[in-house]
Protein 1
Amino acid sequence: MLTQPDLPYAMNALVPHMSEQTFEFHYGKHHATYVTNANNLIKDTPMADKSLEDIIQSSEGGLFNNAAQIWNHSFFWNSMSPDGGGQPGGDLGARIDADFGSFDKFAEAFQAAAVTQFGSGWAWLVEDGGKLAVCQTANANTPLTDGKKPLLTVDVWEHAYYLDYQNRRPDFVKTFLDSLANWDFVEANLAG
């Protein structure tokens, strides 16, 4: 049986950048529904004993969509921190400078990926072939199925930001980078 991981912080920890109401709906209803749906789809099947990652790699259709959304959302919650945002220093900052030219160029590429994702989807910082890169995925798709190592993501489905930002997706993405991005999480993913 798949479970919904606990949030790594309280539902009101990201105020004023993300409201508790957004978490009540996004985590409490959307994410929880993906878990319920996936469990209903794997019940009494060989998939019931597989890990979430194995289900993602070996499924399609409704099961893939729900399983990948469980994983993407869990990753998204960890991609944010009440103490996040700004520019990372140390080795991570140096890698971003080396692979993108500067943090500002990375931020520009990440924001462009998030804002230009048509419809629902995700923008990602990934490691691909030993190099940092930005990519976007539509709907429930994830870099896991493309052989890329996810490091950071922002959810650009409307339910991720609409209560707080209405139709201002660019403002949400800028706030994510300026005030929420969890660079410690990125460093841990790079090391792992």
Protein 2
Amino acid sequence: MNLPQQLNQLEEEGYTVFPAFLDTETTARIRQHMDSLLPPVAPRNDTSAKRLHTLRHPIPGAIMAEILANPDLITLASQLLNANELRLLEQVLIRTDPADQKPGAHG
């Protein structure tokens, strides 16, 4: 999928995926940081466990400033918002813990 298609999907569906946007090392560091701030990941078969965890601004840790200074992210945000001057309003990271799914179930 190219950028215009991704932007169209974002507009129509409220999400899109940018494959390989962040390298695996950065992605692993973000996940490690989130896991340090959130409760432990619940086992898949724990049906009573909370599966969706949200962290909102301000999120502690230097990694957040590092992510926001990523030139690729700034370029993408400028294109998405059609703006040259950007200001951060809120940081949000969401972790969804894995769960056993019944065949055909959508979580």
Protein 3
Amino acid sequence: MNFELPPLPYPKDALEPYISRQTLEFHYEKHHRGYLDKLKKAVIGTPYAGKTLEEIIRAADKPEIFNNAAQVWNHTFYWNSMRPRGGGKPPERVGTLLKKSFNSIELFGKEIVEAAESRFGSGYVWLVQSDRNKLEITTTGNADNPLKQGKRPLLTIDVWEHAYYLDYQNRRPDHVEAFVQHLLNWEFIERNLKAHTASEAA
């Protein structure tokens, strides 16, 4: 198994003031790297050695292997769900699907914040594509992942406390609102939609 820690798609201070360099450095270097190191050890001598992260997530029946594989995948997906000077107006196709699914872009943002606030304990908030013309907001606990449920992830927000506590303390909704308004990477959602469409056509 030759998994490597992917580089961040931006400098560690690029998301300030919404996510500090200190938070990003701690989150990436300690948590993400830690999950990767544990996964490499856990799969040695198992049938999962040589499989992709997505294959492991879908098939793993041992918590140690599933949790670490999912957390490596989830964190990489989370970094790409953000970008400096994000938020604002979505691309046309994304905006059309959001309006169809949530009635408006504003209600989509509100529902994301409410979902994050209602998620008890650690986990993630996801925007997923449940079918070609329908988007949903869902949450998962701990390391769980929509891939396990057969859904297509388009975007995620990490709501484990280590993702925001240094910057927002216990104000999780403020963290998520800042993400939606200032960091959300619409182009990443659009690329995932296109990838899904291409895979359906293949």
